[in-house]
Design a protein that fits this description.
The complex is a heterodimer of chains A (206) and B (267). By secondary structure, chain A is mostly helical. Chain A has 2 domains: 111 residues, Rna Polymerase Sigma Factor, Chain: A, CATH 1.10.1740; 75 residues, Orthogonal Bundle (Arc Repressor Mutant, subunit A). Chain A has 10 helices and no strands. Chain B contains 8 helices and 7 strands. Chain B folds into 3 domains: 50 residues, no CATH class; 52 residues; 140 residues, Phosphorylase Kinase, domain 1. Chain B has 267 residues and is α+β, with helices and mostly antiparallel strands. The longest helix of chain B has 26 residues. Classes of the chains: A mainly alpha (206), B alpha+beta (267). The interface between A and B is large, with 72 and 78 residues.
Amino acid sequence: MAARLAFCSGEGIAQNGGCSWEATGRGFNRPRPVEWALSEVADLLPQHVPALRRYARALTGDAASADDLVQDCVERALTRAHLWRQPGNLRAWLFTIMHNLNANEKRRAASRPRLAAIEDVPEPARPASQVEKLMASETLAALKLLSVEHRQVLLLVALEGLQYSEVAEVLGVPVGTVMSRLSRARDRLMQLSSGERAAPQPRSVT
Amino acid sequence: MSTLGADNGPVRDEDLHAYVDGYLDSERRRVVEAYLRSDREAAARVADWAEQNRRLSALFDPVLDEPIPPQLTAAIARASKRVTPAWPSSGWAMRAAASFAILAIGAVLGFGAARYAGGDTQPPLQATLPTEAQQAFKVYVSEKRHAVEVAAAEVDHLTQWLSNKMKTKVRPPDLAPLGWTLIGGRLLPSREGPACLFIYDDKAGRRVMVYLVSNADNEGTTIQFREHNGVRSFYWLEGPLGYALTGNLERAELMPIASVVKEKMTF
């Protein structure tokens, strides 16, 4: 049973309905009572927690604030489960909640700004070579210097593998803005971590 | 999202990003690849971006395998529970389902913690399995002539050979009813010793792969999902083996295949 629960994904239910819910005879297209939305979100949420933690860690650069952010996000998602509509993309919805929470926190903290310290980066799973370690610390230092807007877009795309349209949804900006931020973030990160090559201007390349 | 802009239009900045992130369909990808052969500066830029993706994953993917902090597990259980008593249809089945959901959350989140509590410094198999399977997928997805060592025509030989290597019976599952034809299989090295890979394709030429690795402690897990840059895996441990079904299909399309693999490969 646990296996079946873990198997049910946000997209999975939405697209093929092949989960254990079928046995109850409830269709997914019918409006569902609040308590069903809650139990769906509660069932599906745990499998997204590791990715939420990864993104929060990379975004904030600090393990403790990252987990605070994830905890707030999880609590908010469960208290507002009725706002999640099937068929819907639970993962993108969770990242949206996290983005809004982080933006609110940023506004509150605006009077007492502090630099994010990326110090709680986990040890690599395997022993890294000296060169790899050097590259990793370069990348880490460069990431820290990116603006939050650039870091968000880059991490959602490169680390979390969200589609550009999903990133636009999460951040509440047009896809065009996502693309231009992504382009600038990538060139800026390259510039910062190599320190040599100047980033070329974004352009049409034909 | 397959492409941004018209399929036959000029290659734009957006195409280069989508190329790096794996969001182009095969036709557009060929156009971009041809373009990159003619523009070395763009090719260098694209290579830099791909390297960034790789470094970011290397830096932060280990977070995925960390145990979930207990206060986070507790917060989820608390938040789920808070709403439970308000359920109007308070039959025993509903209550049982609610309690079960909370238990399941604990079980899923607690699994990593249990593994780490033993002071095990090596990452658990469930952490390395999807990475290894996805790496194998990336290498063999575009390999046309030498994708397999033993072709499907010699399936009995394939079964016997790989079963000997894996020291347990491994037979490629029949996925033909789902439209996936076995191309063949190959032996691969892994941290756990020999691993094997069965490669399937469909009429459109897409591929999915079943990756098997030895599961020395015989510990089982639920089915889990991992996605990285458009490559998706469902994976689990059961009995003597760890399993991963990997492809670049949409998750919802991959899921029923994983389900059949799991069903057919039970020992």
